[in-house]
TrEMBL record:
The keyword Lyase applies. It holds the Pfam family ADSL_C. One of its GO terms (cellular component) is cytosol. PANTHER family: ADENYLOSUCCINATE LYASE. Residues 3-83 form the Adenylosuccinate lyase C-terminal domain. This is Adenylosuccinate lyase C-terminal domain-containing protein. InterPro entries: AdenyloSucc_lyase_C (IPR019468), L-Aspartase-like (IPR008948). Keywords: Lyase. GO terms for molecular function: (S)-2-(5-amino-1-(5-phospho-D-ribosyl)imidazole-4-carboxamido) succinate lyase (fumarate-forming) activity; N6-(1,2-dicarboxyethyl)AMP AMP-lyase (fumarate-forming) activity.
């Protein structure tokens, strides 16, 4: 699928929060994203193996950034606005998908 590349923005912002310049954070993320894309390799694995990245952000912090739940945190509210109750949609979505961090 995405090999984890969907999380590249979160990683870049986390690096910026660690007081790296936006340009430096972009270069670090882009370098690993291109390796992932061209080499069909897992993005998180590449980031963890990059000493420049792990010198700024820990592997444990990286794991936290690679959690799909971050993107789904407002799903309940969105469906509620559509007039759907939790029981109408929850089973078909949450039970059919494992959205935790994983290697792809």
């Amino acid at each position: 699928f995405t090999r984890g590349l969907v999380f590249s923005q979160r990683v870049m912002l986390a690096l910026i929060e660690k007081e790296l310049s936006r340009q430096k954070a972009y270069e670090m993320v882009q370098r690993n994203a291109m390796k992932s894309w061209k080499g069909n390799k897992n993005f998180l694995t590449l980031l963890k193996a990059d000493p420049e990245v792990t010198g700024t952000i820990s592997p444990e912090e990286l794991e936290i950034l690679f959690d799909y739940q971050h993107y789904l945190q407002h799903v309940d509210e969105i469906f509620q606005r559509l007039g759907l109750t939790k029981s109408q949609w929850q089973g078909s979505i949450s039970e059919s998908m494992d959205l935790g961090p994983r290697a792809i």
